[in-house]
Write a structure and sequence with these properties.
alpha/beta, Spore Coat Polysaccharide Biosynthesis Protein SpsA, Chain A, TIM Barrel, 2 domains, 8-stranded parallel barrel, 23 helices, 16 strands
Length: 543
C-alpha cells in the first residue's frame, strides 16, 4: 500500500503525553502502536509537539528508530499537515492514536482497500457503527483534505481532533465489515488507569505483541476487566443515584451502599453503556459519591444530570439578588461535590421555579449557562399540568417525569410531547417506572401505605400481564413497558447493589413489547388514584 500512517502521540497542552510511555510487555504504548501499524510494511510517522515536555518521548522514538515529527503544541491539525509536507495531495493518510494499540497492518489493509474501492474522501472504523471496540479505531482521508481543513478552520475542536472539518464536508462513512461482531460497546483505548489494567490483561500471555492479530486481541478483550457483561449497550438505562446518597424507596432492603460499593456500581453501569447518571442536591451525599467515584479518567464517559436545590429556605418575597445567591450556592456546591467545572445537565427540582420569583431562577440559570457553568437546562415535573408548562419553555431541553404502566395521567398530553420533540431538541426521561419499588412488591403493607385498599386486584392484574407479555417478572414487565414507549429517551432506575444492576441490564437488553401489548396494558390497567400514583401522598412508615 502507498498510504502513510500518522500516529498521534499528543493532542494539545491540556492533554499531557505521559500515558503513551506506559509499557505493555515492556514496550511503551506509543512504540507498540507504531510497530503494530507498520507490521505490513507501511511508513509510520509519529507526530508530537515541539514543547520540551515531549523531549523524552522524541528520544524514546529515536531509540526505536521510529520517525518522529515535532510541531505546534496547540494546533494538532497543523502538526499533521506540516509532518506531511513532502507528500502530494492525493496521498492516502491513515490517522491513528498512540493510546490505541489494537489496530494492526491487516486491519489497516482492509480499511484502505475499502476506502480506495469505494472512492471515498473519508472513512472511519470505530465503535458501534463498525461493530468494533472503542479504541480499535482507524481514520482514512487524503492529504488534500487535511490541507484544506488547516487553511479554512480556526475551531479549537477542529484543530485538536484533526478530522471534524472533513467529516462535516463529506460525511462520516464507517467501515462495517465487522458490524456483525457487535463489539462496539467494548473498550480498548487507554484513557485512565483502569483502561490500562484491562489492556495489560489482554496482552498478559501474548508472546508476540507486535504481530498478534487485532481479532485475536479482541477475543482476549472479552475476558478482560472493565468490559461490558451485556451483548449490547444499555444507553436508555439512566442510573438513578438517590440510593447512593441516602436510603430511598419503599421496598429498599439493603440500604445505602458505601463508597467502594457505589464506585463499583457506577463504573459497571458506565462500562455497560449507561449514558446518564441522575442525581440532585437534595439526594444526601449522592453528588459527592459520584464525584469521588469518577475521578481518574471516568468523568468524560457519561453525562451527569443534577437538580437544583428545592430552595425551601428561600423566602417567597426574596429579592432578585437573593434568589440569584441561592441559585449560585446550589450550582457551585454541585460543581464542588461532583468535581466538575461544568454541569452537563442542570434540572429544576421543582417545576414551579420556572416562573417563581418573577423568573429570577430561570434567568440566573441562563446566565450561568452563558458563562459555561451549565451545559443544558431541564426540569423535573410531577403532573401533566407541570409538563404543559415545561413544554412552553424553549430553553428547556430535558424533561423528567414519573410514569409507569399503571399511570394513566399522561395519556392525553403525550401527543404534545411528540410534537415538541419534532420541533426542537427535547430529551424525555421517565422516572419511577416501578413506582418507587411498589409495583414489584408483594408486601401488602407497602400497598396500603400507598393508599391501595385492595392490592390483590392490582397484583393479580400485574401477574396476568407478566404471563400475557411473556416477561420474567413484574420488574421486567414494568421496565419493558416504559422502554417500549417511543417518546421515552431514557428510564431512570435506582439501584443499590450489583445484583440489581445486572438484573436491570438484562431487562434493558430484552425485546421490547409490541404495540399490541402496550395497547392491551393501557386498555385494561386498574384505575389508581392520584394519591397512589404520586408518592408525596403515601403514608409514612411508623406514623
Amino acid at each position: 500500500m502507498n498510504s502513510i500512517v500518522v500516529l498521534q502521540a499528543r493532542t494539545n497542552s491540556s492533554r499531557l503525553p505521559g500515558k503513551v510511555l506506559l509499557p505493555i510487555k515492556e514496550i511503551p504504548l506509543v512504540v507498540l502502536a507504531a510497530k503494530r501499524a507498520a507490521n505490513k510494511g507501511r511508513s509510520v510517522i509519529v507526530v508530537t509537539s515541539s514543547d520540551p515536555s515531549d523531549d523524552g518521548l522524541a528520544a524514546l522514538l529515536s531509540s526505536y528508530s521510529l520517525s518522529c515529527f515535532r510541531g505546534s503544541l496547540e494546533n494538532t491539525l497543523d502538526r499533521f499537515v506540516s509532518a506531511l509536507s513532502a507528500y502530494d495531495d492525493e496521498s492516502i493518510i491513515i490517522r491513528l492514536t498512540a493510546d490505541n494499540v489494537f489496530p494492526d497492518g491487516e486491519l489497516l489493509d482492509e480499511n484502505e482497500n475499502y476506502f480506495v474501492g469505494k472512492q471515498l474522501h473519508y472513512l472511519c472504523c470505530n465503535g458501534e457503527h463498525s461493530g468494533l471496540p472503542y479504541g480499535m479505531s482507524v481514520e482514512i482521508t487524503r492529504l488534500v483534505h487535511l490541507r484544506e481543513a488547516a487553511k479554512k478552520t480556526n475551531s479549537k475542536y477542529d484543530i485538536e481532533h484533526v478530522t471534524p472539518y472533513i467529516v462535516r464536508k463529506f460525511g462520516a462513512t464507517y467501515f462495517q465489515q465487522y458490524k456483525h461482531l457487535k463489539k462496539g460497546h467494548f473498550r480498548c483505548t487507554i484513557d485512565c488507569f483502569d483502561d490500562y489494567i484491562s489492556i495489560q490483561k489482554v496482552f498478559s500471555d501474548v508472546l508476540d505483541p507486535v504481530n498478534e492479530s487485532s481479532f485475536d486481541l479482541l477475543k482476549r478483550l472479552e475476558k478482560a476487566p472493565f468490559q461490558p457483561i451485556t451483548s449490547s449497550s444499555v444507553s436508555k438505562l439512566v442510573f438513578g443515584t438517590a440510593q447512593l446518597g441516602e436510603q430511598y424507596g419503599i421496598a429498599n432492603k439493603t440500604g445505602q451502599p458505601d463508597q467502594i460499593q457505589s464506585q463499583e456500581l457506577l463504573k459497571a453501569a458506565i462500562i455497560n453503556g449507561v449514558a446518564y447518571l441522575d442525581t440532585a442536591r437534595a439526594y444526601g451525599s449522592s453528588e459527592d459519591v459520584i464525584g469521588q467515584s469518577l475521578i481518574n479518567g471516568w468523568r468524560g464517559r457519561t453525562k451527569i444530570i443534577t437538580k437544583l436545590s428545592p430552595m425551601v429556605d428561600c423566602p417567597f418575597n426574596a429579592s432578585t439578588s437573593s434568589v440569584h445567591a441561592f441559585v449560585d450556592a446550589s450550582v457551585f456546591k454541585s460543581c464542588s461535590a461532583l468535581r466538575v467545572q461544568k454541569i452537563d445537565v442542570l434540572m429544576l427540582h421543582r417545576n414551579t421555579h420556572l416562573s417563581a420569583w418573577n423568573d429570577a431562577v430561570l434567568q440566573r440559570l441562563l446566565k450561568l449557562q452563558s458563562y459555561g457553568v451549565i451545559g443544558e437546562l431541564g426540569t423535573s415535573v410531577q403532573n401533566p399540568e407541570e409538563l404543559l408548562m415545561a413544554l412552553s419553555y424553549s430553553e428547556i431541553h430535558y424533561i423528567q417525569l414519573p410514569c409507569n404502566l399503571l399511570d394513566w395521567r399522561w395519556d392525553s398530553i403525550i401527543p404534545k410531547v411528540v410534537a415538541a420533540k419534532a420541533s426542537r431538541k427535547l430529551i424525555v426521561h421517565v422516572r419511577s417506572a416501578l413506582l418507587q419499588g411498589l409495583l414489584p412488591s408483594k408486601v401488602d403493607d407497602h400497598w396500603h401505605r400507598a393508599n391501595v385498599e385492595n392490592p390483590i386486584h392490582v397484583k393479580n392484574w400485574l401477574k396476568n400481564q407478566v404471563n400475557s407479555c411473556q416477561r420474567s417478572n413484574v420488574t421486567d414487565l414494568c421496565i419493558s413497558y416504559v422502554n417500549s414507549l417511543p417518546w421515552v429517551d431514557g428510564i431512570v432506575v435506582g439501584m443499590e447493589n450489583m445484583a440489581q444492576l445486572k438484573e436491570n441490564i438484562n431487562h434493558f437488553t430484552k425485546k421490547k413489547l409490541s404495540n399490541v401489548e402496550v395497547q392491551a396494558i393501557q386498555n385494561t390497567r386498574p384505575k389508581l388514584n392520584n394519591t397512589t400514583l404520586n408518592p408525596a401522598f403515601w403514608i409514612k412508615e411508623n406514623t
